[in-house]
Amino acid sequence: MAVIRWFLGILILSYEKVASPKGVQRSSEQQVAIDEATKSLTLYQYKACPFCLKVRFAMKRQSLAIETKDAKRSELARAELLAGGGLLKVPCLKIVDNQGAETWMYESSDIISYLNQRFDAPVAV
Ligand SMILES: N[C@@H](CCC(=O)N[C@@H](CS)C(=O)NCC(=O)O)C(=O)O
């Protein structure tokens, strides 16, 4: 089982290398605004998780420099995820609003919809 998981991990990471999408090009002012907005986001993930890869591709497509934390390798990240989100499941997007309130969003499809809705339009930061 561990060997199969290891092999799948290698496949996923290799696929990411060859299939990683191109990022959208924005004006530098727009990109600076988006970079500022994404400082309040953190993606908890595993490198070799296919659902996390789906989210990383969406981030790449949108040129979003969201901080990622590896909940498999980092005990601290794992503890943060469990304490904040309540589940040891990835991907999970931590969203901090202007008042400092946190939302912990699970489910890759929900995370991608959220990112697309928030960052697709140039003014929606
Ligand atoms: N439906 C979820 C599936 C997420 C999922 O199954 N993630 C796995 C890793 S690939 C997980 O976190 N499993 C719990 C664990 O590994 O402890 C999604 O699309 O985000």
TrEMBL record:
It holds the Pfam family GST_N_3. It comes from the Bacteria. Gene3D superfamilies: Glutaredoxin. Residues 39-123 form the GST N-terminal domain. This is Glutathione S-transferase N-terminal domain-containing protein. It comes from Reinekea marina. The lineage of its organism: Bacteria, Pseudomonadati, Pseudomonadota, Gammaproteobacteria, Oceanospirillales.
